[in-house]
Prior knowledge:
By secondary structure, the chain is mainly alpha-helical. Helices cover 60% and strands 4% of the residues. The protein is built from 18 helices and five strands.
Amino acid sequence: MRLRPPAIAVFLAIAATACARGPVNTDAQLYAMVDTIGLAELRRSPERAAVLGVAVQTFGEDYRSRLDDRSMAAVERMRATRLDFLRQLEAVDRATLSRDASRTLEIAQRVVSSTVKMDAYSFGYADLGRASPYLISQMDGAYAGVIDFMTVDQTIGSRADADAWLARLEHVDDAVTDEYRRFEIDRERGVLPPAGILQQALEKARALQSADPLAHPLTQFFAESLSQLNDLPEGEIASLIGKAAGIVEDDIGPVYDRLVTLLETSAASAAPEPGVWRIPNGEAYYEDALRLYTTSDLTPRQIRDVGVALVEELTGEINTALIALGRTEGTVGQRLEAMRLEPLFLYPDTLEGRAALLAAVSERASWGEQKAPAMLSVAAAAQVEIKLAPASLETAGPDIHYRPAALDGSRQAALILNLRSTLDWPNWTLPTLAYREAAPGRHLQLGIARAR
C-alpha cells in the first residue's frame, strides 16, 4: 500500500517561495519563476522524474520508491497551484524584460493558461501541454501506464534497485484505485468514453488480469531482471520474486478484478458515437483542447479544413508513387493495405526475422541522426538505442515507446518496440517508424528542448 508523499509540504514550500519573491522586473527573476513552475510540475510526478533520470537533489527528496499520487486531493492541489502561477505570470511587467525573456514569458503564460482552462472542466486530466477528457482509455490510464513504467522505463541493476522496485510495486494498487475512483466520479457527471474506446481498454485490462501471479507481466519482468544480477544468490532471488508475486496476487489482482467489472459495466452503457460533443461542455472543451495542443487560435473548422487539404495533397503524392510502381487498382488506402500483406515486404515471424527488422530500424535511425545536422542548426542529440520490449509485455504493452536519455547520464535514449509479430511492420513502413519515433523525430525534438 502507498505511504502518501509529503505533497502538502512541497506545495507549501513552493507557495512560500513564490509569495516571498518581490516584483518581477528582471530576466533572472522571470527565469527563476519559470523554474519554480517547472519544479512544481516535476515534483508531483516521481514517475516522470524517473523516466527523465532526474537527480534526487534536483527533485528535492528521494523519489525512487514512489509512484505518482493520483488521488482527487492531489489533483485539486495542483489545480490551485497552477492558478497561483498563472496569476504571478500575468503580473509580470513585460516592458522590463529583454526580448528573449519576454518571449519566454509569452510561452509560459500560454502553456499555463491553456492548462488552467483544461483544469477548469474538472474531469479527465490535464498536464502542461497535454490533456484528455477521459482518465481511462486504450491509450491512457494507470492500469496500463504504471505497468509500462514499471517494466519498460525501469531498470534493475542492483539489489538496491530491486528493493526500490518492490516498494513501488506496493503502490500500484493505490494508483489504479485512485484513478478509477475519479473515473467513477466523471462517469456520474456524464463524462464517459465511447463504447469502442472502453471495449479496447477492457481488453487491455483483462490481459493484465492474470490468474497466475507468477505469470503476470510485473512478476515476469522482475524475475527476468533479477536473473541478470550475478551477485544475488538464487535463494535471495527466489525470495524477492515470491514477494513480488505475493503483492500481485493479494493487492494488485483484486484491484484489476474491480477495474474490469467497472469497465464492463461502463462499456455496456456507453454511447457508440466517439465525438467529445457528447459530454457536458464538450464543444468548448474541444476548442480549448485544440488551443492547448496546437497553440493556434484557429477554429476547429479551420483546423479541420487545413487537415483535409493536407491529407488530399499527401494522398495525391502517394497515388503518383503507387502508379509509378504499377499499382493502380483500388483506392490509395486499399492499395497500401494490399502491400501490407505481400510477403515481398514482410520479415519472417521468427527470431531471425525480428533481429533483421530491429537492425533495419536501427540503420535508418542512425542515418537520420547523421543527416540531422544538415537540416537543423542544432547539435545532434546523443545516439538512440533501438531495442525490443520485454516479452512479458507483448500482450498488453504499447507498440512503440520512446524513452529519453536520463539527465544524470545513467541511461541512453531508447526506442522500444513491442514486436508481437513482424508481420505488423512491412519494410516500407520502417522509414516512418525510424524517422518519426526515433531520429530525427522525437529524439531530436526532446534533445532540442532539453538544451534550451
